[in-house]
Amino acid sequence: MTELVDDFPARAIILSAGQGRRLLPLTENTPKCLLPVAGKPVIAWQIDALLANGIKEIVIVSGFQIGKVEALIAKRYHDYSNIRILFNPFYEVADNLASCWIARDEMRAGFLLLNGDTLLGDHLLPGLLHEQEAPITLCVDFKTEFDDDDMKVQLDAQGRVKQVSKKLSAGETDAESIGLIRFSKEGARLFREAVEQALRESEKLGSWYLAIISALAGQGMVNSHSVAGSRWCEIDFIQDLQKAESHFAFKETESADQLRPDQLLRMPG
After folding, report:
1. Count of CB atoms situated within 10 Å of the CB of 154
2. The pairing of beta strand 36-37 with beta strand 40-41
3. Were 256 and a residue from 45, 49, 140, 229 both cysteine, which residue would form a disulfide, CB within 3.0 to 4.6 Å?
4. Is the overall model pTM greater than 0.85, yes or no?
5. How many CA atoms does the CB half-sphere of 52 hold within 13 Å?
6. Where are the beta strands (DSSP E) in 50-167?
């Protein structure tokens, strides 16, 4: 019992250091995480979902216009002392692996890792938090076609992750990563050590952290968790923001198993 409690991901790390240049001019002076969706900033959607699901401590890795992020957190969450912000000074020259390095000391117990541009519906997190524990659990969704920008995932017959990469071929691709990962205490240790090792090589500064997840998957450490039928949205382009606006403009009342068949995304055969 104690071991299960120790590994419950009571902490979440949100990676929100980038500007979001593909959303210019909206992000010229505003970080992507502060763009409004249905009247609420992206990061507020994330924090509210985490707090509502028992995540007591939230660490935000910020960079571009960090002062504006700090101001929003101070105003909106002034009663929550366990919401903290870390500064990534490399945000203009590095990718999100560097943000993980900045937050590596926060990875000492089970935690959730969330991309700063992923919105989560009301019913998505409970399923992940009650998933049978694995060292690392990657949230995935399914669709009929994948584009070049999708973070593609190859699965084995048992749902374990084999590879994660944008460069997977159509024949290798079974799902896409939604930008949410659960780590057990052991998974956190493995990931933290791999991040520390990777950034000893200067050329890795521009790498994605999912390259490390893919390497650990090759060692049998990564399971998948399907979020098919749950509401979520990744915001990279203007059309994604418009999609998020329509998806999150209403309060979610139906559970995933109450959705109509035509609302569920296709599962792989």
Report:
1. 19
2. antiparallel
3. 229
4. yes
5. 13
6. 57-62, 83-87, 111-115, 118-120, 136-141, 152-155, 161-165
